[in-house]
Structure formats: C-alpha cells, structure tokens
C-alpha cells in the first residue's frame, strides 16, 4: 500500500518543486554561490528517497514528466541567442575563435586527464561535455555512452567553480577585455557562470550568454567525431 | 489561450526536430536541431519573440528545475562516483581553469589581430 502511494507522478513532481523552492530560498538568504538551488534540490530529493526507502523508479514517475521539458528548454536557448544577435554579428570572429578554442581545450583536457587517472569509458564520456549547458551536455554524454547523472553533477560542479573563481581567474590571467572575460566565463562554466558574469558587467554577461549557445553547438559538432 | 498556442509552437518545433533527427544520417541531438530551427525561424521573421515570449521565459528562467530528476538518478551511481571522487574533482578543476585561460587568450589574440588589420 505504502509503495503505491509514492509511485504517482504527482509525488515526484511535488517533491521536486518543494526541494527546488527550498534551494532557491537558501540561495537567496545566504547569497553563497556554493548554495546552488539545483544542487540543494538534488541533495534534498536524494535524501528523502534514501531515508524513506522510496525506489528511484517510483520517484521517476514524476521525474519523467519533468524530463520531458528538457528538450523545449534547450530549444528556447535560441531566444537568448536571438536577443543578442546584434552583438553576435559585431563580434562573430572573436566569439567563434574563442568558443572553438575553449570547447576543444575543455574536451581535450578532460580526455587527457581521464586517461591519466585511468577512469573508465563511461565516466570519461560522462565528463567530456561538462563545460556546456546541462541539456546539451546530457545529450552528448548519453550519446557517447556516459551516465547522465554523473554528467549533471559534473556540469553543476563546474558551473559553481566557474562562478566562484571567475573574478580570481580574470586577475590571474590579466583579462582586461570584457568581451574576452565574458566568453571565457561562458565557455568554461555555462549558465551558472553567466549569472556571475552578469554581476561583473553587461558586456561580460551578454558574451557569456552567447558562449553558452555557441559552445553548446560546437561541442555537439566535435563530439560527432568521437566514436562512442 | 495565448500560453496554449505558445506551448503548441514550441512542442511542434521539438516534434519536427525529432523527425529531422531520425532522417539525417549523423547523430545530432534533436533538442539542438530544435534550437537551430527556432533561431532560423526568428532570424527569417517567420516567428517573432512575442509569439513565444511567456513560454520561453518560463522555460529559460526555470531551466535548472528540469534537471532535478536527471541529477537525482545519481543515487543509482553512488558507488561509481565514490570510487573516483578525487580524479573527478581534479578533472573538473583543471579543465575549468584551462578552458577559461585558453578562451580568454584566443579572444585577446583574435581581437589584437583584427585591430592590427584595421590600421
């Protein structure tokens, strides 16, 4: 009887929304980058499932409904590129060169490091697209034989790293040009980093936002050359 | 009514891009095809942002929420993550710093070359 109660899509959806709201509230109250609402929500939902011994399959009745919105959300990234289309036209060459170099460096360095640590194929494939925005990253990861969950965790962790260390990295590498700073933040830490870039300045934010879409498409293109 | 039409537009694009994905010989993900498709529709002014504003604002501003189930499935893979936690952290940190540096220098170099050309 008890187990049937949790195998309803409404349970999974309600639990996810509640956990996310708590995450957003904690982020708002503390103002810490580390308190990423998505990360908090994942920890809370996982804790509830583990403590109450609810099988993931039951939770996923609702989870699958939420998952269905991933594709439409990715499609809508086009709107955020379109609203900055003027900026893209004016700076298309630096954007294209920067995002190509960034995407290749990200995938290349991850591949090299994974080999160095002798991580297996599935973990390597899960980590490869971790610098791009989550919906695109999980597409690339599952296509290469990766584990979606590990990709999501790596993407969020990378985003948080980028948003915390962006100001420091700008200083260390002496990046004075706001266009270069914005693209670099977007290329290495996607949407989470972009929220930090917006705090640094309007140009930084817009460039970082463009880098999300451009690096996403480029990473998909480059991943086509990798054999799963 | 407005929201229903907007949902219909975006879901139609998703559906068409799934068909395109099945038809093309390369393994290009449907959602990214949909993104390119919507960008083309906007650029050619077949669609205006007003046609899909509320729906796309809803999806974009709550984007993080939609990844919760995918993230929660980590409870099925705890053992894999635990066994390679340290390499996992090192890979994330090192590749993030490298990607930042290379992107920033590539952009700086490109802009410097462009400036020199102008002169």
Describe it for me?
Helices cover 81% and strands 0% of the residues of chain A. Chain A has 228 residues and is mainly alpha-helical. In chain A, helix 8 packs across helix 12, helix 8 crosses helix 13 and helix 10 crosses helix 11. The longest helix of chain B is centred in the last third of the chain and has 34 residues. The mean pLDDT of chain B is 91. Classes of the chains: A mainly alpha (228), B mainly alpha (119).
Number of strands of chain A: 0
Low-confidence stretches of chain B: none
Proportion of helical residues of chain A: over 70%
Averaged pLDDT of chain A, please?
90
Order of helices and strands of chain A: HHHHHHHHHHHHH
Unreliably modeled segments of chain A: none
Q: Assess the beta-strand content of chain A as a share of residues.
A: under 5%
Q: How large, in whole angstroms, is the Cα Rg of chain A?
A: 19 Å
Number of domains of chain B: 2
Largest interface: A-B, 102 and 70 residues
Give the count of helical stretches of chain B.
6
Distance between the termini of chain B: 56 Å
- Mean pLDDT across every amino acid position of chain B: 91
User: What amount of the residues of chain B lies in strands?
Assistant: under 5%
Shape of chain A: globular
Main sheet characteristics of chain B = none
């Amino acid at each position: 009887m008890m187990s049937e109660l949790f195998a309803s899509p409404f349970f999974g959806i309600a639990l996810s929304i509640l956990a996310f709201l708590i995450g957003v509230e904690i982020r708002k109250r503390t103002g810490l980058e580390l308190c990423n609402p998505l990360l908090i929500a994942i920890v809370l939902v996982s804790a509830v499932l583990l403590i109450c011994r609810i099988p993931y399959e039951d939770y996923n009745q609702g989870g699958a409904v939420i998952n269905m919105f991933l594709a439409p959300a990715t499609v809508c990234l086009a709107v955020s590129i379109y609203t900055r289309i003027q900026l893209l036209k004016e700076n298309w060459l630096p954007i294209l060169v920067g995002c190509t170099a960034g995407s290749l460096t990200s995938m290349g360095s991850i591949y090299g490091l994974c080999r160095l640590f002798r991580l297996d194929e599935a973990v390597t494939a899960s980590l490869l697209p971790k610098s791009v925005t989550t919906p695109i990253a999980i597409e690339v990861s599952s296509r290469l034989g990766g584990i979606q969950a590990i990709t999501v965790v790596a993407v969020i962790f990378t985003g948080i790293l980028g948003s915390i260390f962006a100001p420091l990295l700008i200083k260390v590498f002496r990046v004075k040009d706001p266009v270069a700073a914005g693209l670099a933040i977007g290329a290495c830490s996607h949407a989470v980093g972009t929220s930090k870039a917006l705090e640094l300045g309007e140009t930084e934010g817009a460039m970082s936002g463009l880098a999300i879409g451009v690096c996403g498409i480029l990473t998909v293109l480059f991943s086509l050359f990798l054999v799963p | 009514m407005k929201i229903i039409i907007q949902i219909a537009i975006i879901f139609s694009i998703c559906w068409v891009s799934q068909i395109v994905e099945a038809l093309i010989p390369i393994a290009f993900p449907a959602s990214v095809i949909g993104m390119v498709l919507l960008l083309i529709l906007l650029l050619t002014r077949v669609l205006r942002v007003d046609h899909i504003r509320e729906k796309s604002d809803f999806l974009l501003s709550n984007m993080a929420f939609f990844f919760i189930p995918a993230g929660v499935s980590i409870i099925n893979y705890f053992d894999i993550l635990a066994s390679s936690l340290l390499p996992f952290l090192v890979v994330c940190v090192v590749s993030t710093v490298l990607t930042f540096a290379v992107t920033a220098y590539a952009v700086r170099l490109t802009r410097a070359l462009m400036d020199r050309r102008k002169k």
